Amino acid sequence: MKSLGIFLLIFTAGCLANAVYYNGDSREEVSVNDRTWVVGQPTAMIYDGTRKNFPVLKDMYPLCDNERFQEQRLVGHCSGVLIASNKVLTAAHCMQSTNSCPNARFVFGAHHTAMNLNVYSCNKVITIDQKMDFAVVELNQHVVGIRPVKVATDVNLREGDSLLSMSYPLGLPLKQDIGIIKNADANSNFFKVSVDTFASSSGSPLFNTRGEVVGILSRGAEDILEDDIYRVQTRGGCINFNSCENGTCNGETFLKAALISDKI
Hints:
By secondary structure, this protein is mainly beta.
């Protein structure tokens, strides 16, 4: 079995937002020709600038043939979104602490055919809140040619509403998916969404129909079931990512962005 230990280390270290498929894998590529590109472009991939090699997905894990995007490279370890010309909003656990800044690198709109993207460094971590699980990073320079997103200032979330997810699941190139709100408890700082995100989608934005960020991904269900890992370790074969059908999972957990709009 190829690179199982390495794979599990990469996928669990510092990435709380594991996730699953909800009623099948509905992730789609994002390109400059899509209607959604206006919100895809400011979505940030965060990666470790000290790394030199970025393997393709199929070389990191014994996946079954039906799993998608296996020829694409795993680069990022988290996601985020541009909220000002030199500021990125992400999850607190993506930065861990202000000491995470020196090695962090940011690229925007890193879709599957993107080339020669501008790379930005972390100048400083302006805000980090472990309880609410968000961080604001100041970049080393202003991002030119990309319009920052607007963060919603009012919590207007209802069960059954559709939202647009943009993220870099597993560190893959930018993917989009439509999420459905499962629970928007008014007494909680977080809400639940059925949406196909994975480890490395942490910190990724959810957009409403006005293009406002209404949520930041904090955590979710496991990408891979322990029983499947044990089976492959002991008997061989291949692994599929976890899949939730017909409401069998609680949903991915997102911070209500409006609750921090005055803090960022």
